[in-house]
Amino acid sequence: MASSDWLDIRGWMDSIIGWSLDKTHQILPSSDIGLGPLGTINIQDGFSSVQGALHIFIFTSVMCTVVFATMMITLIVVPYIERKFIGRLMDRFGNTMSARSLWVGEGGVTAGEWWSKLPLGLGAPIGAINKALNKNFGNDHHTKSVTRVGDRGYHGIWFMLPGFVAAVADFVKFNTKAHIVPEKADRLVFEVAPVIIISTTVMVYAFVPFGPHIWAANPDLSLIFMMAIFGVAPLGVFFAGWASNNKYTLIGGMRSAAQLTAYEIPLLVTVLGIAVLSGSFNIIEIVDFQIQSSDTWNLFLMPLGAVLFIVTMIAEVERIPFDMPEAEAELVEGWWTEYGGIRWGLMFAVEMMRAYAACILFALFFLGGWELPFQDTLVTIPVAGSVFSALAAVTPGIAILLIKAYLMFALFVWVRASLHRIRTDQILEFGWRYLLPLSILNLGLAMVMRVALWDGSWPIWLAPLMTIGSILVFVLLAIDEDKEALKNSNRIYHTQTLEKAYPGRRD
Questions:
Q1: Is the bond into 321 cis (omega within 30 degrees of 0)?
Q2: At residue 499, what are phi and psi to the nearest 5 degrees?
Q3: Which of 85, 98, 133, 333 could form a disulfide with 103 if both were Cys (CB 3.0 to 4.6 A apart)?
Q4: SS3 147
Q5: Alpha-carbon distances, residue 224 vs 107, 200, 219, 227, 281 (angstroms)
């Protein structure tokens, strides 16, 4: 590996488990034990016969637990980014009293010196801490305290801290709500649909490496397995919408099925282009190709594929502007309408997990995975190169990968805050008429580059040429205006009305 090789979780776990099993084998009795008419048994020899299989089982179980725990812990940051970033884009900081409410009240109103009522003087240190916090970070501070309906200013840097554990609080709230099944719903399918959505999403992470040595499974066709599992979740959405026996949920489920067919094929063709360019269906080998073989991120070699992957993944995880199956403005909550309690909370978490997985995959496929940006170039700079090389050596690969994934999720939030939800027919037209032909073009370019230009290293002019060419094409398409189509209101993103409606108009 080019960088971040020291955090060898798999190697450490393998060594610990192997040492533990060897010690267990040594302390077992080595002599034969008589079993009467059944003969004799040697426990040590019997353990030796199953030690290899037991080692694999324990090691796989431990790595699955490590990957799942890593996913759940790092996932906490995702809703925090969404809430804070979209709040900042909308120029609102939200209720910043969340953290300070531990020692001050809303709008300066407190519960009084409750600690003084504790027996045996136990409240004295609590009161001292409370007064110190209130003096430095509370109502006694020169900065105004925040109220829910009045002052919306923020208290120094405190606007960044509140809300971090909001996801945990929401999960606890959902877990305490009652689970209600509609009377006329298909109960079996209604209960199974969330299981399909949740289980398939969790299974995706079995093939997602969080670093060069942090992964649960690494088959040769891990890319194919993962994308196949990724595409099953929308079927669960369709089943949930149909089984609820609600017109809004049914429409949401039908939209999910239609959206699946329109975007799944361009997504798979785009992913196939990545595999062709990298020469492998293995995710870790795709990352290694960018780090060691080509010495160029796939982002610069196939920028069209990067854009297609982002767009199709946003549609795959059903986020704005492609969240038509939910579409709370017209379908109440879409296919979510009849769900509540812990099932609703888990499916909300799954939505974040799928978006999070999409961001990690983009970092792996196009951003060099756990490699620092322009690492091989920066290490050659005098003096500064040595500092950068030392930084690259001590920085864990998982930290680099997560930073890239979080930045990509911020892009997802930016798209949500910037674009409006488009119509169902626009989604289908965009998928079939534009994304599918472009994905086939991207696959053709990947084949040409791999067959005609790849000889162990890319020509130095290839990456700048592909990147600059793609930018020029994008600019030309962005400034192109089909005046005839605009006149006839035929453009798929047309939002203007040629004739404004007004009160009293009858035609």
A1: yes
A2: -125, 115
A3: 133
A4: coil
A5: 55, 14, 10, 5, 7
**Rounded Cα gap, residues 430 and 421, in angstroms:** 13
Tokens 């990456």 belong to which residue? 463
Q: Tokens representing 182? A: 């509609």
Residues in the chain: 507
**pLDDT over 50 (residue 291):** yes
Residues in Cβ contact with 475 at an 8 Å cutoff, skipping those fewer than 6 apart: none
Kindly report the backbone phi and psi dihedral angles of residue 194, in degrees, each rounded to the nearest multiple of 5, phi listed first. -60, -35
User: What is the rounded CA–CA span in Å between residue 336 and residue 125?
Assistant: 48
* Residue range 47-79, pLDDT digits in tens: 888 888 888 999 999 998 999 899 888 988 888
Q: Taking all residues of the chain, what is their mean pLDDT, rounded to a whole number?
A: 77
Burial grade of 484 (CB within 10 A; 0-12, 13-18, 19 or more): exposed
Is residue 211 classed as helix, strand or coil in its secondary structure?
strand
In the chain, what are the domain boundaries?
A: 9-31+40-76, 78-170, 194-487
Contacts of 40 (CB under 8 A, 6+ apart): 32, 33, 34
Q: Taking the C-alpha atoms of 362, 365, 367 and 369 in order, what is their torsion angle to the nearest 10 degrees? A: 100
Residue 429 and residue 492 in contact, taking contact as beta carbons nearer than 8 Å = yes
Separation of alpha carbons 446 and 62, rounded Å: 38
Q: Residues 6 or more apart from 294 whose CB is under 8 A from it?
A: 301, 454, 457, 458
- What amino acid is encoded at 335 in this protein? W
Asked if pLDDT for residue 33 goes beyond 50, the answer is yes
Q: How many CB atoms lie within 10 A of CB 216?
A: 21
Residue 275 has pLDDT above 80, yes or no: yes
**447 close to 440: Cβ distance less than 8 angstroms:** no
